[in-house]
Design a protein that fits this description.
The protein is an alpha+beta fold. It contains 26 helices and 14 strands. The strands form 2 sheets. Strands 2-3-8-5-7-6 form a 6-stranded mixed barrel.
């Protein structure tokens, strides 16, 4: 040993069990922070993909623009792409109602108007239709259909291209017909929208104000892609900013959880070594040297634990991304499962490093202030109260259980740290569960009674038809059919065959609305978000349970000499089990009660803030309580077994 600082690695290697527990605590805290923040980064990536799919890739739109406005905006150096979408009103295709419109070809992809086959209409006698409508009427590219335009003029048009299905028009059973630019110029548009996509790095709010002021465009003519702007942090929408505030609170709690986890375990470990620090003071070590030794230990632990924690957090993200890629390949097919968040890794490293340093220095500072004689003899920690105690616990419980509860309650600092560690994890669980609420995400999801097919008729639907539909295998009539509407829900088996059977029993006076795609789009978006959020909850729950077990291990191992003394004076193994279990359950229930109370308050406040109904989370509370008690019970098994295997005389001799 060349320097006193070499005591740090020697102590850590000489007390492998304690060191392992401390390292594990840091690993779990870092993995929690890295995993949650990396999953948040992946969630933002998903949200952007979802917004681009549902709303389109644009930043602002101008309603009913003039040609001058279009020319000036398109010529700006900060505009990457722009295009016009015209609503040309209603028309008729083969005597059936249809919606008509025109879209600039250069911007069609930005609004998810994807050409599946053929080409966009160029000539005035060409049109483009959705795939579902062509399949329904057995039409193909090159076929001719009769179109009655919104101005009343009817003519034959050639199908030049096929676009992907739109859930909304398919559910309404009204096909959307895209015409050529020449045809659109001869019709009066009901409304027109000019979409603008700015270049990367542009301050969109300032640019929008500049455009509106320069062209004298009123505020009611400007629209925003709020979802995309929110993800770019360039929104001024108060509701979106509210969501960000809630998210910041929850993820701030994640950081606090990581800090408490590390501080709790490290504090127990360092405070257990007051006697060792006293011995060093007796042989001439200064207060500064004591602090430097502890700082060196914390650095060694950080260098071991933080890389493992980062890898653990990255593995959590890898698993979550893999599940999402398998669950929703359409949305996540192009997203790499090996993408990791630099912010998440940085947050984990900083949390681990800074917390270990702080957690080690505070108890070391206290140890350095203790008198060397008191530290060696332990007299500083032994305080005899002059007040006579009533012995309430011993009247209510057997002596060993009373001792366990008393040990937990009397050590206020340890009680606060243990309670905080458990409580903050429960608060996180209850807080994050709010995110699965569709109202928070601004999503619509189908209910169990949502129809997959709807039949409507202005001329009325007979009871005979309703009876025929109820007998079709794979379909169920929802509710009581009305004179003009029947709702059907499919079983999920051979749905296409069921739809064909339904179509076969209806006549031309009845319109079939296929809502399956619209329902699936809403469900996929919500379920993917739910996978993310429940992934957050699962990670928090798992690491919280492991942290609780690890902390109890550390607490019991640090008190092994005290427990050995109790065995030496006659306490049986059975009594020892009950005492330690009572102490563990006291910590667990105290943390559980505190966490549930504060977590329920947080959950209610968040939902009230969102103007969403709140109900008492009884099942969550019961589940959390059961898990806390089970974890508190299981956490003492391993350390107690090791203590019982130790010969009492060996432990007493080391005192």
């Amino acid at each position: 040993m060349k320097t006193y600082l070499d005591l740090a690695p020697k102590y850590l290697s000489g007390h492998k069990n304690k060191t392992r527990l401390t390292v594990l605590s840091v690993v779990m805290a870092v993995a929690l922070v890295v995993g949650i923040f990396s999953m948040l980064d992946a969630l933002v990536t998903f949200e952007k993909a979802q917004v681009l799919k549902s709303e389109g890739n644009y930043h602002i739109l101008i309603r009913n623009p003039t040609q001058t406005e279009i020319d000036i905006i398109a010529s700006r150096i900060d505009v990457e792409n722009s295009g016009m979408l015209k609503d040309l009103g209603e028309g008729k295709i083969n005597d059936e109602m249809c919606a008509m419109g025109y879209m600039d070809g250069n911007f069609a992809g930005n609004l998810n108007i994807v050409l599946a086959e053929g080409e966009a209409p160029k000539n005035d006698n060409e049109i483009m239709l959705e795939k579902w409508y062509l399949d329904q009427l057995a039409l193909h590219i090159g076929d001719t259909v009769n179109i009655a335009l919104s101005n009343g003029i009817a003519d034959d048009y050639v199908i030049s291209g096929v676009i992907n299905d739109w859930g909304a028009t398919k559910a309404a059973s009204i096909p959307f017909v895209f015409v050529s630019k020449g045809t659109s110029e001869g019709l009066s548009a009901v409304t027109s929208q000019y979409f603008v996509l700015f270049k990367v790095g542009v301050n969109i709010q300032n640019t929008e104000r500049e455009i509106a002021a320069g062209l004298n465009i009123s505020a009611d003519r400007v629209g925003y892609n709020e979802g995309l702007l929110a993800l770019m942090l360039q929104t001024k929408n108060n509701r979106v900013l509210t969501f960000y505030l809630i998210g910041m609170v929850l993820f701030g709690l994640v950081l606090v959880t990581g800090i408490v986890m590390i501080y709790n375990t490290f504090n127990i470990s360092v405070m257990d070594r007051v006697r060792q620090f006293g011995l060093l003071r007796c042989i001439g070590a200064s207060k500064k040297q004591i602090r430097r030794i502890v700082r060196r230990e914390s650095l060694i632990i950080s260098l071991k634990a933080i890389p493992i924690g980062v890898l653990g957090g990255m593995f959590i993200t890898f698993i979550c991304s893999g599940i999402l890629k398998i669950y929703n390949p359409y949305l996540f097919g192009d997203i790499s499962i090996f993408s990791f968040s630099g912010i998440g890794i940085g947050a984990g490293v900083l949390t681990g490093l800074l917390t270990v340093l702080i957690a080690s220095m505070l108890p070391a500072k206290k140890a350095a202030k203790v008198s060397p004689v008191n530290a060696v003899t332990g007299s500083e920690s032994v305080k005899i109260s002059g007040r006579q105690k009533q012995g309430v616990l011993t009247r209510l419980f057997p002596v060993e259980i009373a001792m366990g509860v008393n040990n937990a309650i009397n050590k206020k600092r340890t009680l606060i740290l243990m309670t905080s560690s458990i409580a903050i994890s429960i608060i996180l669980l209850l807080g994050f569960s709010v995110l699965v609420n569709p109202a928070f995400m601004g999503m619509k999801t189908d209910e169990p009674y949502t129809p997959d097919l709807t039949l409507t008729s202005d001329q009325g639907i007979t009871s005979e038809l309703s009876e025929k539909l109820s007998q079709i295998e794979g379909g169920e009539v929802l509710g009581k059919p009305t004179e003009h509407q029947i709702d059907l829900q499919l079983s999920g088996k051979n749905d296409e065959q069921t739809v064909n059977e339904v179509a076969a029993v209806i006549d031309e006076t009845i319109t079939l609305h296929d809502k399956r795609q619209l329902n699936a789009e809403a469900d996929n978006a919500f379920m993917t978000i739910a996978v993310f959020i429940y992934g957050f909850v699962a990670v928090i729950a798992l690491i919280s349970i492991l942290n609780m077990i690890n902390t109890m291990n550390t607490s019991i191992v640090s008190r092994s000499k005290y427990l050995a003394m109790l065995r030496a004076v006659g306490m049986s193994d059975k009594q020892l089990n009950k005492m330690v279990l009572a102490q563990s359950i006291t910590y667990s229930l105290t943390g559980c009660i505190t966490g549930c109370v504060l977590g329920v308050v947080l959950q209610k406040e968040l939902l009230d803030f969102l103007a969403t109904d709140w109900s008492f989370p009884l099942y969550q509370i019961v589940g959390i309580t059961v898990i806390c008690i089970m974890t508190g019970t299981l956490s003492v098994i391993s350390p107690l077994k090791k203590i019982k295997e130790t010969v009492i005389s060996e432990t007493i001799t080391s005192l």
